[in-house]
Amino acid sequence: MPMNKPATCRAIDMGRIKEIVMECGGNKWALIPVIQKIQNEFGYIPPEAVTVIAKGLKVFPSQVQGVISFYAQFYTKPRGRQVITVCRGTACHVRGAESVLNFLEDRLGIQEGETTPDFEYTLDTVACIGVCTLAPNVVINKQVYGDMDLEKVQELFKKGE
Ligand code: FES
After folding, report:
1. Residues 6+ apart with CB under 8 A from 156
2. Which residues neighbour 78 within 8 Å (Cβ) at sequence distance 6 or greater?
3. Ligand 1, atom 3: nearest CA belongs to which residue?
4. pLDDT of residue 62
5. Does 142 fall in a domain?
6. Digit-coded pLDDT (tens) for 41-55
7. Which alpha helices (H) appear in the chain, and where do they start and end?
8. Per residue in 83-112, pLDDT tens?
9. Which residues partner with 125 through β-bridges?
10. What is the CATH number of the domain that holds 127?
C-alpha cells in the first residue's frame, strides 16, 4: 500500500485554528479558505472549530456549518491516513468493482464510508472518476490504480506490509 500520509486525527489545537482564521483575513469572505486550510492541516473540520471560525469571521455558526455540509469534500470526522476510494460508476461496476469493494470491506473490517479504529484506513466510494477505460478503478491517496481485480488489490496490501 502506498504510504502517502495526509494529516489526520491529530490533537486539535484550537489556538492554531484561531491563527488560521486570522491568517486568512479574518472576515466572512475567507470562510471557504479557512475551512479548506483547517481540513488540510487536521484532515477534517473538528466540530468544536465551528464556533471559533464563526466568531473569528463574524458570521453565524449555522453559516459555517452550512458551508461544511454543502461541500462533499469537507469532512466532519477524522479520516484514515490511507484513503481508499472504489469507483462505483457503471463501467467500474460491470467490470467487478463490487467484488473489489467487498474484499476491501472484509480486509479492513469496515463498511464504505467508515474509518478503521486506528485511523489507518478510510474506505470511500465515488460515482465515476472519469477514466472508465481503465475500469474497475481504485484510488489510494489520490493515485489511480486501474484494471483492478482481487489479486491486484491483495498485492497492494502485501507491498505495504
Ligand atoms: S465508472 Fe469508474 S471511472 Fe468511470
Report:
1. 1, 2, 140, 145
2. 8, 9, 43, 44, 115, 119
3. 132
4. 97
5. yes
6. 988 999 999 999 999
7. 14-23, 31-42, 49-57, 61-70, 90-94, 97-108, 150-160
8. 999 999 999 999 999 999 999 999 999 999
9. 86
10. 3.40.30.10
Q: Is the CB of 128 under 6 A from ligand 1?
A: yes
Residue 25 above 90 pLDDT?
no
Contacts of 122 (CB under 8 A, 6+ apart): 79, 80, 82, 83, 84, 114, 115, 116
Mean pLDDT of the chain: 90
**Per-residue pLDDT at 136:** 97
C-alpha cell at 77: 470526522
The C-alpha atoms of residue 90 and residue 98 are separated, in whole angstroms, by 11
| Single pTM value for the model | 0.78
Gap between the Cα atoms of 97 and 82, Å rounded: 19
pLDDT confidence of residue 130: 96
- Domain match, 22 and 58 both: yes
Match 469534500 to its residue by C-alpha cell. 73
Domain span at 58? 14-70
Ligand 1 centroid distance, CA of 109 (Å)? 25
Residue nearest to atom 1 of ligand 1 (CA): 89
